[in-house]
Design goal:
The strands form four sheets. Strands 1, 2, 3, 4, 5, 6, 7 and 8 form an eight-stranded mixed beta sheet that branches. The chain has 1012 residues and is an alpha/beta fold. The protein starts with 10 loop residues before the first strand and ends with a helix. Helices cover 60% and strands 11% of the residues. The structure holds adenosine-5'-diphosphate and magnesium ion. Adenosine-5'-diphosphate binds next to α6, α8 and α16.
Length: 1012
Amino acid sequence: MSSTDRIEPDGERKQVTVLFADVKGSMDMAEQHDPEEWRRIMQGFFSILADEVRRFEGTVDKFTGDGIMAVFGAPVAHEDHARRACFAALRMLDDIAEYAAELRRKHGLNFSARIGVNSGEVIAGSIAAGGSGEYTAIGHTVGLAQRMEALAEPGKAYLTEATAELAHGFLELEDLGEFEIKGASRPVRVFELAGVGAARSRLDLSRERGFSRFVGRGEEMGVLEGGLERARAGEGTVVGIVAEPGVGKSRLCLEFVERARGAGIEVFEAQAQAHGREIPFMPVLQMLRAYFGIADSDPERLVREKIAGRALLLDPGFADDLPVLFDFLGVPDAGRPAPQLSADARGRALRGIVCRLVRAPNRREPIVCLIEDLHWIDESSASMLDELFAAVEGTPTLVVVNFRPEYQRPWNGPPDYREIALEPLGPNDTAELLRDLAGEDPSLDGLAELIHDRTAGNPFFIEEIVRELAESETLQGERGAYRLAHPVDDTGVPATVQTVLAARIDRLGREAKRLLQVASVAGKEVPERALGLAARLGRDEMEPLLCELTESGFLYEVELYPERIFAFRHPLTREVAYGTQLGEQRAATHAAVARATIELNPERQDELAALIASHMEAGGEAREAARWSARAAYWAGSSHPADALRLWRRVMELVADLPEDEETAALAVASRLLQLQFAWRLGMDREEMTRLAGEAEEIATRTRDLHSLAMLKMATAAGPGIAHQAEVWIESVEEVNRLADESGDLHLRIALRAAGAYAYLCAGDFEGYEAELDRVLELADGDRGAGAGIVIGSPVAWATMGKGLVLRERGRLEEAEELFNRALTMATEDGDPETASWTRSNLSLMLATRGEAAAGVALARRNCELTERLGDVFSRSLALSNLAGALLGAEEYAEALETIDEAERVYREAMDSGGEQETWRAAVRAEALIGVGRPEEALELAQWSTDVAKERGMRWSLPLNLRVLALARAAVGLEGADEALAEAAEVAEWTGAMLSLEAIEEARGRLAAGAR
Ligand SMILES: Nc1ncnc2c1ncn2[C@@H]1O[C@H](COP(=O)(O)OP(=O)(O)O)[C@@H](O)[C@H]1O
Ligand SMILES: [Mg+2]
C-alpha cells in the first residue's frame, strides 16, 4: 500500500496565540519619504519583529505590508504559546522604541508600532489544494487578534481575555474593560500588556491562588529526606524526579525544600523555562544569584560585595575568579575587567567555578540545590550537569532535579543518583484533594470518581477542571464549599490543560501522531488489528509507532492475548487528539474504523452493531448507519427495550434524510413500527403513537407491505394497554391474525397470534386463550425460534407459560408449576428475559396462593430485581404487582400496599393510563387497604374497579374485584357482602377460574366467622 492511500491531514485544529504588529500611520509616512529609504526603514522594522518572533519560537505567518502576523503554538505546539507571544510583544515594543528614537534622530520621523494578541483555536495547515501551499493559520481567532491590533494605542500591545486567561500571573496585565468588537458576537474584555509578572512557573500561580492541601507522596518524601540525611553526613547525592506535566514534581519539591528550610538548611533554586532554551546558562546564573543572595533591586556594587564576600570566605583562591564571576552575573567591575574569552572558554570557566564552589573544603553546612524542569534546559547549562553532579560526591550537598519523561538525561550516571518516577494520585488521594478543593456537599457525590476517571489522577488537571466547573457555575459556592448545580457527565478540557496536552502530542513524530489520532477516533480502547486497518498501516509499519506511543506514555497495552489491545492512558489526551483533527479527516477515519470493525469481527457483528452504526454516522455514512442501527435495535430487542427504542428512533431520523427507495422505505416503516412495539412496554405519548402509526401506515400501504400492516394493526389496536373493551380488543386481534395469515409469513403468524392471545386471557376466555396458544405451538412445530423476537422474544416459551397459567386458574397447580418451570427454562435458554420475568411473576403468585407465601414472596422479590435491569415498564409494573399479590398471601399488608402503589405509579407515569391490568391491580390494592385498616378507601376502590371490569368485560379480574368488594362491604359494616360473593362465584364458575372460586370460598368463611 503506498503512502498516498493514507488519510493524510492537510490541516489541524490547534490552540495557538496569534500576534499582529504594524506601524501606525505608515501610509502617511511612506508618502513623505523616498521609497528606497522608506523600504530600508521598514526592513529594519520587520527584522526586529521577526527576530523576536523567532527568539520565542513563533512562526511569522505573513508580512502584511506594514507589519506582520505571527503564530505561537503552530506548526509545533508550545504549551506556553500565550506567554511566548506576550514576551515577544514586550520585547518588540522595547526594541521598536529604541529604533524609533534612532529614526527620530536621523530622519525626524515619528515612528510607532502597535500590537494585538489573541489566543484560541485555529485551523493550521496549508490552504492550497493538495497541501502544496504555504503553512498558515486561519479562523476567527486570527481576526480577533487583528482587531486588537487596530484597537491598540501606538506603542502598546492589547490582548483579549483568552490570552489573558493563559498568560495571567506570568505577565502584568491592565484590564481595560469590555469592548464591542466588530465580528465578535459579544463584548470582549481587553487587556493592555504592562510588563513581566511575578510568576515564573505554574506553581507560582497556584501559590497565588492558594495551594490546595498537599496529599499523599509519603514514600517519595522519604526518598528525598534520605538524600538529605546523606548530604548531612557529607555523602552528597542527586535525586531526580520524573513525571508528566502536572503530576506534581514542583509541588513535591516545594514541600520538601520548605521542610528543609524549616530545619535550617540553605536551599537554592533554579528553573529552566520553556522559552529559555535559547538563553545560555539561564538556570546556572539563577542558581548563582540565589547562592550569593542577590536580589533584583540590589545596586551593582552591593552585588559585587555579596559575591566577593561569600566566595572568598569559602576559599580565598576565588580572588582570581572574581572578574569572571562579576561579568557572568552582569555586574562587571570597570576597575578589574574580565579577560576576553571565547564562548567556549567562558563556559569552561563558569563550569570550573561552579564545581569549585560545590567542593569548597571550607563548606561544612549542608545545602540543597533544586533545579526544576530540566527538559527545558539550554544546551550550555546542560553541558555542565554531568560535572556538577560528579562534584557533589563527598560534599554536604543534595541536588534535586525534576523533568518530564521525554527528557534525555545527559549525565552518565552520577555516582550516587536516585530517581523517583512520580505517579499520578490514586483514587483516595484524588478524593482527598477534591474534598479540599470542592468540599463535601452531598451534591458532589460521585464527582470524585468522574474526575479521577477523566484526569487519571493528575492534580493539575483536577485543579483546572474544578476551576473550570466553578467558572461555568456548574459548581456553585466558594472554593472548598461548592455545591453541584447540575449533574455533569462531561467536564470538557480546560484551555490550560489543552495546551499542555497538545504540546505533548506535537512532540510525537508525524506518523505516530497520526496513529494516535486514528486511535482517538476508534475509542478509549482499540485492538491492534482494527487500528492497523483503520490507519491503513501494515504490522511492520505500525510496530515502531506503537512503541513510540507506549514509550512516551500515550497508550498502554490493556490486553496482550489473544490480541493486543491499546488504551489511552489519559482520557483527556484522547479528547485533545480527537479535537485536533479536521472534521472531514475525522469523518473518514470514523468510517474506516467502522469498516475495520466489521471486517475483523464477523462473529460479533450483532453485538457490535450499535458501535459500528455510531462510527458510520460520525463518518457521514447515513445509509450504513441506518442499517447498522436497525441491526443493533433488533439485537437489543426486548431484552434491552430502552436501547432498542432509542435505536429505532435513530434509524427513523437517519432514514428521513435519505432518498426513498425500497430499502429506505422498509426501514422507515420498520423503525416506526418497532417504536410502537415498545409503546406498550415502555410507554409513549398518545400523540406520538398516532403520528408514528399514521406515517408507517401511509408508507406501508403505498409499498403494499402486508407484513408491516399486520404488525401495525397489532401495535395500534390489538396490543395490551390500549384502553378498550375486551370484545373490541378480541376483534382487533382476530383481524390482525387474518392479516398475518394472508401475508403467508409463518413467523409473523406465530408471533402475532402469540401476542394477541393475551386479549382472550384478560377477557376471562381461558378456552379461547388456550386455543390460540395451541395454534401457536402447532404452527411452531417444535421450532423454538419460530416467530421469535418479532413481538415477543420467544413465542414458544410464552405459549408454554400461558398454558401453565390456564392450569393455575383451573386449580391444577402441580401441572401448572411444571409448565411454568419449563417455560422459564426455555425463556432463559432462548434469551427472552421478558417472558422469563412474566413466568416468574406467575409462578410466585401461584406459590403464594398455594400456601407457600414465604417462597412466593422471595421469588417475587428476586424477580423484581431481575426485571428492574430490563428497563421495561410493562414487565416491571407486572413484577411489582405480583410481588404485592404474594405479600397479601403472607399478610404483609403495609408492604403490599406500598408495592402495588409503586406498580401503579410506574405504569401510569410511562403510559398515561392504567392499561388492561388496571382492575386487577385495583383488586390487590383494595385488599391491602383492608389489611392496613382503611376499609372506606378499599370499598370505594373495589366498587370502582368492579364497575370498570364489568364495563370493559375484563372477566379475568372480575371475580377478584367482586370478592374484595364483599370483604370491603363487610369491613365497613355495609350490606351486600354475600351478594357480591355470589356474583363473584358465578363469574368464576362461568370462566372456570377454580382458583378464584377457592379464594371466594375462603372469603365466605372469613365473613361467616366474623359474623358469628
Ligand atoms: N500531592 C499533591 N497534593 C495536592 N496538590 C498537588 C499535589 N501535587 C501537585 N499538586 C498541585 O497540582 C498542580 C500541578 O503540580 P506541579 O507540581 O506544578 O506539577 P508538575 O511540576 O509535575 O508539572 C499544582 O497546583 C500543585 O499544587
Ligand atoms: Mg513543575
